[in-house]
Amino acid sequence: MFDLKMIRDNPDAFDAGLARRGLGPMASVIIALDAENRALMTEAQAAQARRNEASKLIGRAKATGNEDEASALMAEVGVLKAKLATFELDIATQTEKLNDLLSSLPNTPYEDVPDGVDESDNVEVRTWGTPRPMAWAAREHFELGEALQMMDFERAAKMSGARFVLLTGQLARLERAIGQFMIDLHVDEHNYAEIMVPSLVRSEALYGTGQLPKFSEDQFRTTGDHWLIPTAEVPLTNIHSGEILEEENLPLRGTALTQCFRSEAGSSGRDTRGMIRQHQFNKVELVSITTPEQSDAELERKTGCAEEVLKRLGLPYRVVKLCVGDMGFGARRTYDIEVWLPGQERYREISSCSTCGDFQARRMKTRCRSKGEKQTRFVHTLNGSGLAVGRTLVAVMENYQREDGAITVPEALRPYMGNIDVIGGSQN
RNA sequence: GGAGACGUGGCUGAGUGGUCGAAAGCGCUCCCCUGCUAAGGGAGUAUACUGGCAACGGUAUCGAGGGUUCGAAUCCCUUCGUCUCCGCCA
Questions:
Q1: Does residue A262 carry a catalytic annotation?
Q2: From the Cβ of A135, is strand B under 7 Å away?
Q3: Between the N and C ends of chain A, which has fewer C-beta atoms within 10 Å?
């Protein structure tokens, strides 16, 4: 959502931002709608002012028994009332038109975000680690998992259809261990508050973070009035919707481990094998609410927190800055972290860290104010995966696979795995 | 799921159709007084939009949305939420 004043004051800059997203200019249309709307409001408010005044006079006239004056005033107000009804209708129509338009526009990228249309135009920022040498042909995670008889896509499909998985035994435990490990790291060392959030939310929450109205097809919805969250970003970011926060308490950092649900409409045929793209997966999410001044540094910090998970697990990765065309709807700048998958011999996304500026804050009306000030401002919101649990499991399996198909448990996870150091192999 | 009660400003809490954006108290801010401490006096203290260079105005908001009325915090409807009792349930 955009600031109308900003569009009014810098129409060219606004259109330039849209242009980078591949959209045509909108500023003049928006400004015209807004001007029309404000003119209507000014007129309507004048009429309302007179109505309020007259109504008070009626009260006074009645109190003093001046019935003639009262009925004259009532006649005047009757006329105003009819006028006001049409004003209200016009204003409502105009406002809706304007809101529909504004809420469908993606956020404008920051200047340092590279141009480009898809992921091939992303810019590598840094890499960490080197892939382990393997003397055999590296297997993909589903080959390993199925051979271990701990990963079952067919039986999952029996009850739930495609894009679901059944993990059993040590792999189920590994999934759980990875989630615990990540949450503990972010809570104990990165100063995030641990939060348990609802997995079902109302449409207003999805509107607040930008999934609605445009991306309803990507979500699962209940027959009632709820939607399954596609990411904990939704509940975590919406916690403070409608509130005015004290700036001295910012930034607020919250983390949650939740299941995420995505319809994956439009990705049919992509990543059909294995756990990379599922309708349901676990993810640890990192959300920050900051002042406008803090958000740039917070994005770097957050990305670092996510990277730390991979470092502790000894998983090689690289960080890329997304180009304009690959960024999400609400983002102004995004870093993706891509982990090395030996089975695919390529880096795959395992985290995405974004700053949304005040884009979401405007939608959900989260403001801040420094102590003693009267002026409020919209906060900045940031989100990032820290990390996607399922994909981390994939990465652990593929990077730590042994020639015999067993999987070495990374040191950091052993306390969460009953201190075993290998999954499969002779000891299982 | 059944029955009922309630939702007012940072908090407590008045207010059942008229000058109420809203009493009072608490809290908070500023000022005055007071040689510490304590107490006292005065002023101020919501948000958004909008008009104006500004000074200063206007409009809306008493959970939310709609309705009745010349006029609604007050009446009616819908909805969301909270609480109590019963039932059910992890």
A1: yes
A2: no
A3: C
